[in-house]
Design goal:
single chain; alpha/beta; 8 strands; about 20% strand
Length: about 290
């Protein structure tokens, strides 16, 4: 199990000029890089692609699910990622995350799981139908002709971690269709259960994972989220599972999409490092 952050590696990613963006950071922080935030471009030592975005829809049980597909604009085939949003939905900040991932050399399909079911952003309760809608999105992704191979990796943020977990285990997609699972500060418990379950338990499905897992989280994450994710990771590792735990010092929730005056230099370092680690993780399991 891996822990911490590589300072020298991060310093390499930060090499080169940085452009201030007052519209996003409020007061034009010196470390701001608009090319990274808007288009996913890292320094020249990291693989970069210009990204094109496609909008599509697919159907499940009479419900139309809108989706975003981001991919390199060169027309070549690339490994496939199914990406799931959290409670905030597939808003502008979430879409930027999808584009930054695609810029690393992936075809990324990100369903908008709320719009088709008329769910407001940031819902408190979890609608279990969303898991099936996301599973149907995996079918849509794997049927594309512009992906490499016949499997995908699942990447998610916050509550998307629970939805992708259910797709992987409950819908029985792991190994044959899903090669790996990565979660940014993931919620790995049924959101509809009460407080004791949120703090002291994690979803039993996590113990059934048979594929490599990566969790990226800040050490200032909310207590119940950090505790539950750590218990899940340790439990799976104790059972012989392949788990990589990345914990960033001085970083809280939302380090990859927090913007405005609340965004810090530590958030940006963590976001860049996490993106490179996820890229290597996915490539390891989809380009073998």
């Amino acid at each position: 199990m891996v822990r911490g952050i590589a300072g020298a590696f991060l310093a390499g990613m930060m090499a080169g000029p940085l452009a201030a963006n007052e519209a996003q950071t409020g007061d034009g922080q010196w470390w701001w890089d608009d090319g990274w935030w808007q288009e996913g471009q890292l320094n020249p030592d990291i693989e970069n692609h210009e990204v094109e975005v496609e909008r599509l829809e697919y159907e499940r049980d009479g419900v139309i699910v809108p989706a975003m597909v981001a991919r390199p604009a060169d027309g070549e085939d690339y490994p496939a990622i199914l990406w799931s949003h959290g409670r905030r939905g597939l808003d502008h900040l979430a879409e930027l995350h999808v584009k930054r991932l695609a810029a690393r050399g992936f075809v990324v399909l990100a369903p908008d799981l709320y719009t088709g079911r008329f769910i407001e952003t940031h819902p408190l309760d979890h609608d279990y139908e969303l898991e099936g809608d996301l599973d149907r999105g995996l079918d849509e992704l794997l049927a594309r002709e512009d992906i490499l191979g016949d499997r995908a990796c699942l990447v998610s943020i916050t509550r998307g971690g629970y939805k992708t977990l259910k797709v992987t285990v409950t819908h029985e997609r792991q190994v044959d269709d899903v090669a790996c699972w990565a979660g940014y500060y993931p919620h790995v418990q049924d959101p509809n259960l009460g407080e004791p379950h949120q703090v002291y338990r994690y979803a039993s499905e996590f113990n059934q994972l048979e594929i490599p897992v990566m969790i990226l989280i800040g050490d200032e994450e909310q207590y119940q989220r950090h505790r539950t994710a750590k218990m899940a990771a340790d439990g799976l590792e104790d059972r012989g599972g392949d788990v990589t735990w990345i914990e960033y010092p001085g970083v809280g929730r939302g380090f990859d999409f927090r913007n405005g005056d609340n965004r810090t230099f530590a958030d940006d370092l963590a976001a860049r490092d996490a993106m490179v680690r996820v890229t290597r993780f996915v490539n390891e399991h989809l380009r073998d």
